[in-house]
């Protein structure tokens, strides 16, 4: 009976991971289409720098407070109430929703009122005589309310995930991409600054994403009236976990925003180059890292609440192995094909060959940290599922301090000795800081005996690395030079890029199989 329960749990995790990963894949593909249209219509310019800053600021706070610290703190407590105090679940949701909504309302109001001051903080390189400054502050007034709606949407996603409903939260981001694509197409009809339409697209997307959740919550009988109560025990537990978790969960996001702040002081276009390369790294991060972390957080929380530590260790350790096996080929593939990917996806219309070269540099730098970005998502669940949010803070602060230190060196050198590709050094600092945090997190979990000693240093990662080397040799022998690729039409570039990716994936999988890796056993 116990073995059957374990088998059912494994199958449930695999099924849920494929659902989240599949929907995230669709979301990322629609995001690529969105960014291709962005690059074609707007290129990488002062205007796009302004929009990406105005979009990144509410998005940063969303990932910092809502999808990051809040979800990681809320889900374990909700799971605890679901298991131990089921009659008080609706009360918890009601108070959390009311409290969160109240806080978000005032944050949004302050964001609109002090938009210019916020731009000064997040983009100090945009001075008052720079068109980017006025444009970014105007757009921020429109995009900041997005934070209110998308944060409440993230709370609902935590509820759905706790009740094993992964489909809707995973597909909802597609609505943002559809809204922005529509806004980009509509921008051609504006008589004033066309890129302003994107700010309205962000706001509309947030409203739609929020309201589409409500009927499903009602169907689950979990749609409750928001109420304010900061003294409710469950609320206090969430706040206690959340405050330190803000740093622990958002190191990558903080580092990315630091990159953006420093990039505003570099050559025009630097913010846009970082944005396009980051978007490409976000693809495997979302499909593998975020998907698995989303699924195992409520599962680990439930196992911890029921004191099933063997199942806890098995789930966490196997998840780490799986994400490592899939992140390594993604890293090597992005590095080898960096020019080809940027050129095939973005180099049309206003996006120039120089934009491709600069974006490719930062893509390589971010790719070096891809396994760390993915591993971090899973490692953090090992702490948050046990309601330990303080430990990751210590390591998060170390990682952020390292990134800020390296960024400061880069910008100080650049201001006295300007050089091409300075933005890529910012991306490299972010990757290195992620690896520092991952090593510290893993060593702590190993010390606490939450993961198995043989988790990383065993034959599977070495088989993966050897397979990656085989993939690079074969793929490197068939790809054409970027300068030749640029001579082809967009559909030829796309076909060739697809061929390279499929070939690389098949070579990797076949090599892994020949070298003795058991995919079915590992996934289960």
Annotation, overall tally of beta strands: 0
First-residue to last-residue Cα separation: 18 Å
- Major sheet characteristics: none
Could you spell the SSE succession in H and E letters? Answer: HHHHHHHHHHHHHHHHHHHHHHH
Helix content: over 70%
Q: How many domains would you count in the coordinates?
A: 2
Low-pLDDT regions: none
Helical/strand content category: mainly alpha
Number of helices: 23
Mean pLDDT level: 83
Strand content: under 5%
Shape: globular
Integer-rounded radius of gyration = 23 Å
Summarize the model shown:
The chain is mainly alpha-helical and 524 residues long.
What descriptive keywords fit this protein?
524 residues, globular, 2 domains, mainly alpha, 81% helix
Structure report:
This protein has 524 residues and is mainly alpha-helical. It has two domains: 447 residues, no CATH class; 67 residues. It has 23 helices and no strands. Helix 2 packs antiparallel against helix 11. The radius of gyration is 23 Å and the shape is globular. The model has no long low-confidence stretch (mean pLDDT 83).
Please give the structural blueprint.
Layout: H1 2-42, H2 46-84, H3 89-113, H4 115-122, H5 131-143, H6 146-162, H7 167-171, H8 173-186, H9 196-211, H10 214-219, H11 233-249, H12 251-263, H13 270-305, H14 309-336, H15 338-346, H16 353-367, H17 370-384, H18 390-416, H19 422-447, H20 459-478, H21 482-485, H22 490-514, H23 519-523
Helix pairs in contact: 1-8, 1-13, 2-5, 2-6, 2-11, 2-12, 2-13, 3-6, 4-5, 5-9, 6-9, 8-9, 11-18, 12-18, 12-19, 13-14, 13-16, 13-17, 13-19, 14-16, 14-17, 14-20, 15-16, 15-22, 16-19, 17-19, 18-19, 20-22
């Amino acid at each position: 009976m116990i073995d059957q329960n374990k088998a059912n749990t494994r199958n449930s995790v695999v099924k849920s991971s494929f659902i989240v990963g599949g929907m995230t894949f669709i979301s990322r593909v629609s995001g690529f289409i969105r960014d291709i249209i962005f690059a074609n219509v707007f290129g990488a310019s002062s205007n796009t720098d302004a929009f990406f800053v105005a979009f990144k600021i509410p998005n940063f706070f969303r990932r910092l407070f809502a999808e990051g610290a809040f979800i990681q703190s809320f889900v374990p407590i909700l799971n605890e109430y679901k298991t131990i105090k089921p009659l008080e679940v609706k009360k918890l949701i009601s108070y959390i929703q009311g409290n969160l909504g109240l806080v978000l309302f005032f944050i949004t109001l302050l964001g609109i009122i002090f938009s210019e001051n916020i731009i000064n903080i997040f983009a100090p390189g945009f001075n008052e005589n720079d068109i980017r400054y006025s444009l970014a502050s105007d757009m921020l007034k429109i995009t900041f309310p997005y934070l209110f709606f998308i944060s409440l949407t993230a709370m609902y996603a935590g509820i759905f995930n706790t009740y094993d409903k992964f489909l809707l939260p995973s597909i909802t981001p597609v609505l943002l991409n559809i809204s922005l694509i529509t806004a980009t197409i509509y921008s051609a009809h504006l008589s004033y600054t066309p890129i302003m339409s994107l700010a309205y697209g962000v706001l509309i997307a947030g409203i739609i994403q929020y309201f589409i959740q409500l009927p499903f919550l009602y169907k689950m009988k979990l749609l409750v009236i928001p109420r304010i109560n900061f003294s409710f025990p469950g609320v206090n537990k969430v706040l206690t976990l959340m405050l330190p978790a803000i740093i622990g969960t958002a190191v990558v996001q903080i580092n990315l925003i630091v990159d953006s702040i420093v990039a505003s002081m570099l050559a025009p276009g630097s913010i846009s180059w970082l944005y396009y390369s980051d978007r490409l790294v976000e693809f495997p991060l979302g499909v593998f890292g975020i998907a698995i972390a989303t699924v195992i957080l409520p599962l680990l929380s439930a196992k911890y609440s029921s004191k099933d530590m063997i199942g806890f260790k098995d789930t966490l350790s196997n998840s780490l192995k799986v994400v490592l096996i899939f992140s390594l080929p993604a890293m090597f593939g992005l590095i080898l094909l960096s020019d080809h990917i940027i050129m095939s996806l973005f180099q049309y219309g206003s996006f120039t060959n120089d934009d491709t070269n600069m974006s490719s540099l930062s893509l390589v730098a971010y790719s070096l940290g891809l396994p760390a970005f993915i591993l971090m998502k899973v490692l953090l669940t090992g702490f948050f599922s046990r309601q330990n949010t303080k430990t990751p803070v210590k390591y998060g602060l170390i990682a952020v301090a390292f990134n800020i230190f390296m960024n400061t060196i880069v910008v100080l050198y650049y201001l006295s000795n300007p050089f091409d590709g300075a933005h890529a050094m910012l991306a490299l600092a972010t990757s290195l800081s992620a690896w520092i945090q991952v090593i510290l997190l893993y060593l702590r979990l190993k010390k606490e005996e939450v993961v198995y000693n043989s988790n990383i240093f065993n034959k599977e990662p070495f088989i993966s690395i050897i397979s990656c080397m085989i993939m690079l040799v074969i793929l490197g022998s068939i790809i054409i030079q970027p300068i030749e690729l640029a001579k082809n039409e967009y559909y030829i570039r796309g076909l060739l890029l697809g061929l390279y990716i499929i070939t690389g994936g098949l070579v990797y999988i076949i090599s892994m199989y020949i070298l003795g890796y058991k995919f079915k056993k590992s996934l289960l």
